[in-house]
């Protein structure tokens, strides 16, 4: 399920970072910092009144001339308009309304996106000072007095943002639709694939019962099944790829992963694997999604009889951190193996939702522990009593044992491999949970 996104924009020095950090300090935890995987602190989960939203800082503005500041502010605001569900415009009570504030306020207002105006540096509690009322002139409704340094008003600010979010309306696709996120670097061919799969079958999202948001989703129904392709390309002003746009496109990719059942991790065959691919792929892996690596532009590769085999070998090495992932070599341009891609999506989706009966799991466990004895330490042997599958998406297995400390990672890995070789689980991460029981 997609979490609503709140973007913070405003002039330099009004206190955006301070506000962001205040919110982060109080009630935001950094999205998991797993080594080598999602180290970018690009967005933060914020829990408030029992609901989670994502908060994004739109990045710094270089202090050049005023003109440049304005153009950067406009770009920042445009990115927020393109991506966020609610925008917080931060202004500064000490400097009053400036021409740049006015310019950006007009732009935000025209966009029709919900905007909440935060009048920052209102440090004194109680009635706001007279200067506060000047901000009504921005035409963005009731301003909210905030002190990002002290934290006053931040709850009211979040409440105001929440009033624009329909938490119930999110992602109401029928479960029979497989939600597919196509993720990958710019130019690998994501849009081309979506255009290809949509083709004549493209439907208007609002025609699908119960859907209310994400107009960029592409709904496809064909002989293979029913699908929602989640578009992550989103920001198409490719000529201006800079840090901020990069930030948002990575962010959108992450959010698409969150909403998906299956992630198609797309590479460009003519470029190959890069570090950045391991990041998005790693995120899909961490989130427990069904995963496929699609090597696109296969039409553009000079091939002989061994090319695919060699390519596959190299990829197996690149994606060794998710050794379960299947590879498919496609061309969005010619349509090569797009039918196979659908079949693979269905297969991986089913694997991700697989449920193994407890009896069969424990048969596997007896066999596995007889074949390779559980480890011992200082004369004590690990004893595993029982195993059960706690959940699906991804398949999660709970092992009950006598002593967690003895349940080394290597033995967990061994059991995971046994699960995989017995039940398949191709294209899906598997989670192992260890519990102690006397
Ligand atoms: P940004 O450029 O918009 O991200 O602004 P910063 O967060 O870097 O803040 C700019 C300056 O304003 C810093 O010196 C902050 O300490 C100060 N500042 C931010 N919020 C407040 C506030 O609520 N009250 C006061 N008095 N100062 C603030
Ligand atoms: P995105 O940024 O990932 O959405 O990539 P696009 O779909 O915009 O494609 C980027 C470029 O790659 C475009 O010029 C496409 O025409 C080209 N392209 C996409 N798929 C293929 C393919 O399968 N084969 C070839 N040769 N070119 C492709």
Could you characterize what this model shows?
- Helices cover 33% and strands 21% of the residues.
- It folds into 3 domains: 5-164, P-loop containing nucleotide triphosphate hydrolases (Rossmann fold, 3-Layer(aba) Sandwich); 178-351, 3-Layer(aba) Sandwich (Rossmann fold); 358-436, K homology (KH) domain (GMP Synthetase, Chain A, domain 3).
- It starts with a strand and ends with a strand.
- It is an alpha/beta fold.
- Strand 16 (384-391) and strand 17 form a beta hairpin.
- It has helices spanning 16-27, 66-83, 99-111, 154-162, 190-198, 243-259, 275-286, 307-318, 338-352, 358-371, 409-423; strands spanning 5-10, 28-30, 44-48, 51-57, 86-92, 115-120, 144-145, 178-183, 218-222, 225-230, 262-268, 290-296, 327-329, 376-377, 380-381, 384-391, 396-401, 431-436.
- It has a 7-stranded mixed sheet, sandwiched between helices. A 6-stranded mixed sheet has the order 9-10-8-11-12-13, sandwiched between helices. A 3-stranded mixed sheet has the order 16-17-18.
- It binds guanosine-5'-diphosphate (2 copies).
- One guanosine-5'-diphosphate (GDP) binds at residues 184, 186-192, 233, 296-297, 299-300, 331-333.
Any key phrases for this structure?
single chain; 438 residues; alpha/beta; Rossmann fold; seven-stranded mixed beta sheet; six-stranded mixed beta sheet; 11 helices; globular; G_ENGA; ribosome binding; GTPase Der; repeat; GTPase_Der
Shape: globular
Mean pLDDT: 84
- Under CATH at level 1, the class of the largest domain stands as Alpha Beta
Q: What is the second-level CATH architecture of the largest domain?
A: 3-Layer(aba) Sandwich
Spell the H/E element sequence: EHEEEHEHEEHEHEEHEHEHEHHEEEEHE
The count of β-strands is: 18
How much strand? 15-25%
Task: Specify the CATH homologous superfamily of the largest domain.
Answer: P-loop containing nucleotide triphosphate hydrolases
How many helices? The count is 11
- Biggest sheet, strands in spatial order? 2-3-4-1-5-6-7
Sheet with the most strands? 7 strands, mixed
Distance between the termini: 38 Å
Helix content: 25-40%
Annotated CATH topology of the largest domain: Rossmann fold
Structural class: alpha/beta
Protein name: GTPase Der
Keywords: GTP-binding, Nucleotide-binding, Repeat, Ribosome biogenesis
Subunit structure: Associates with the 50S ribosomal subunit.
Binding site for GTP 2: 184-191, 231-235, 296-299
